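Chapter summary example.
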Amino acid sequence: MLDTDLSRRRFGLLFAATSAVALAIINRPATAEETFEVTKSEEEWKKLLSPEAFATLRQEATERPFTSPLLDEHRKGTFNCAGCDLPLYASETKFDSGTGWPSFFDHLPNAIGQKEDNTLFTTRTEVHCRRCGGHLGHVFDDGPKPTGLRYCMNGVALKFAPAAA
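The structure predicted for these 165 residues follows.
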């Protein structure tokens, strides 16, 4: 009987701790410590963005891998912020990382901001739009030359602008 009560108590504590971490991740505000050129109320962002784009750009959600149509986008142009249309990545820097998200080895000048992200029991570098603060994804140091970086972006946070013909 004692072992069963102890197991239940351990399970309850583990469940409570896991739930608290999950809620902290889900409810984490989008780059609240910075100010940005483009600012909107939560309601304005909801009207402007799809529910998936809102969850990603404004609440730092992550889209499911291999679901973005931008994975197959290979035309010449730029990948812009879906929130404010700031050009972020040139098509020439896109590569197939095999991760399921659009990936780039470099960004355009003055396009992004970065901050430390300590969610999911690890430290990563979060990438956001410099102009509106929208969450784009993360950058890792396992990319190709010349930078060695992999900007792993949520496709729903981007929109493609083809180059003029």
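To summarize the output: The helical segments are 2-26, 42-48, 51-59.
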